[in-house]
Amino acid sequence: MKRIVMASALAMASAAAAPVGAVCTRGLKAELPITFNGLRPMVPTKVNGFDKTFLLDSGAFWSTITHEDAAKFGMKLSAQGKGYEIIGIGGSENTGIAAAQTLTLSGRTIAASGSYPGFLQFLLGSGSVLGQNILNSGDTEYDLGQGVVRLIQATGCDADQSPYWARNGTAYSVIGIEPVERNWHIRGQVIVNGVTMKAIFDTGASTSVLSLPAAARVGVKPSSPGVVPAGLAHGFGARSRDTWIGPFASFKVGDEEIRNTRLRIGDLGGDIDVDMLLGADFFLSHHVYVSKSQHKLYFTYNGGPVFNLSVQDGAAPAPSTANQPKLADAESYARRASASVARGDRADALADMAQAIALAPNESRYLLGRAAMYREGGNLALARKDLDAALAIDPKNVEALLASARMRVGADKPALARRDLDALASILPADADEQRFLGGLYGDIDAFEPGIAHLTLWLDAHRQSGLRAALLNERCWLRGLAGRELAEGLADCNEALRGNAKDGAMLDSRGLIRLRQGDLAGAKADYDAALKLDPKLAASLYGHGLVELRQGQKAAGDKDIAAGIAIDPKGIDRLKRNGIAA
Predict the structure, then answer these.
(1) What number of helices (H) and strands (E) belong to the chain?
(2) Do the beta carbons of residue 32 and residue 106 sit within 8 Å?
């Protein structure tokens, strides 16, 4: 992979070389507030004065921004990066460079200056991440469990061999890492079943994953006893990859060892020279300090599961916030609550969010955060109460209107959901990212015309997004349900399936389009392929049965239709209601 070598963008502070015997000092250059979207750590910024939230990605060698945002923010495009590639788990992308005049982090604005050649620079890609060109400006402290990352200027600290928060006797581990400035990744070693492996510490990977070749070296393959499918992994690039969860006798990093654990395994991509990604799940369960000058990584264990798996790894329960320090302000409590949710610790998250609301009762974001926690925990009445309170404070709050519409769709209240969606449609800019959610929710209540229209707005404005295939599939499906624009729907599904040939949902959508068109052979081929990937895909069973009936195979058709109804009667009812029936 070609890389672009440039000076660091984050020259917030500078220090002369420390004299021998100097006292260790650590100056705080920036404290980045982190909130979680699932297991994705997100950091708010401003680019050229425009608000923008980035994924905090310690596994990215350089920061990236989407083509659409670069144009919206008035960034200057450069020919310097043409011919370069960004490589990730989902494949690779050719890229150029977009230059910003200013970047604001945690309230501090970095501007182009004589010490930096022209402007702050981002690679153009399908996602927006803050990478190592910013995170590697000095030492970096990843305290994701408390919702913060600190960029630190360390001076005279080469002999300081412990993390500052562990001075009270807290146990800690340390490992050597390759010089970060050599390859712009945090690379160290882990030991799996007694075999040393190369690992990248990667906050941009939601979950940790061991490569298939590395797992095979210690005798674990997808076909091995005890290994179970774990769904598709999505990363930078358009491709998705299968993953599995398998048993391992031992995982060790530094002095920390987990015995009889389970690890996710999968294809990391042929161009990634590493055995394992230690993802955001690892960072949430640890407090991590990367010492750039020492080429070392220090960490302490926060408690709770180390890896985010459908089968728990046997780690101790997550610590209660009752044993954690009191915080100074509402925002700090809200960030810690977000981290607790990401770790599956909803009770402590609710306690922290209650503190945030008590300190700032008129801040709608905190009410929305608690509403989401209640909703995920199944307490819909309390979620509704917090949503209504948030909308009373801010009736045009996009997040609140979306959450309200989702709840009403889920509660089968289409008229009330339509009211929320229409209110949202009246205030959203045409190129807003939320257009994709709006389109999907309109579709969920069978309002096909606005659903397709809002998905089209998003697709027209996001032609290079890594989410494009999924949204094309959604528009294809809505066109199939509506029985309209079938040729366009087929084109949508064909484009979505490029690079995603093993996606059963996309095959199912194309099968529906072909069924509507009367192409029984094509529909049957798609349904066969979808059911081979997932034999319990209800819509494909039902569609397959309809094809069989129309081909005169009544017994087989009745059997498949009955099987589809048994799995998802509500979903099949919807198909029938929209004229997809024998």
Answers:
(1) 20, 25
(2) yes
- Assess contact for 180 and 201: CB atoms under 8 A: no
- Quote the strand ranges of 12-162, DSSP E: 25-33, 35-37, 40-47, 50-56, 64-66, 76-78, 84-88, 91-95, 97-100, 102-105, 108-111, 120-125, 129-130, 139-143, 148-155
Among residues 264, 269, 8, the alpha carbon closest in space to that of 113 is found at 8
Strand 25-33 to strand 84-88: parallel, antiparallel, or no bridges (unpaired)? unpaired
CB 45 within 8 A of CB 441: no
Beta strands in 228-357 (DSSP E): 228-234, 240-253, 256-266, 276-278, 286-291, 296-301
CB-based contact 389:369 (threshold 8 Å)? no
Q: Residue 246 pairs with which residues in a beta bridge?
A: 263
CA distance 420 to 440: 14
Q: Which residues of 50-87 are buried (b: 16+ CB within 10 A; e: fewer)?
A: eebebbbbbbbbbbbbbbbbbebbebeeeeebeebbbb
> What pLDDT score was predicted for residue 84?
54
Query: What are the tens digits of pLDDT across the range 458-502?
Result: 999 998 788 899 999 999 999 999 999 999 999 999 999 998 998
Block residue for tokens 């801040």: 363
pLDDT tens digit string along 501-556?
Answer: 989 999 999 999 999 999 999 999 999 999 999 999 999 999 999 999 999 999 99
Strand (E) or helix (H) holding 187: strand 187-192
Angstrom distances, CA of residue 103 to CA of 47, 106, 107, 314: 5, 10, 10, 42
Instruction: Tokens 């890389």: give the residue.
Output: 3
Which amino acid is it at 197?
A: M
How many angstroms separate the CA atoms of 386 and 29, rounded?
37
3-state secondary structure 114-132: CCCCCCEEEEEECCCEECH
Residue 459: left (phi > 0), alpha (psi -120 to 50), or beta? alpha
Contacting residues for 547 by C-beta, under 8 A, at least 6 apart: 515, 520, 523, 524, 527, 557
Over its C-alpha atoms, the chain yields an Rg (Å, rounded) of: 25
DSSP letter at 292 equals T
* Alpha carbon distances (Å) from 302 to 171, 218, 504, 528, 566: 11, 28, 39, 47, 44
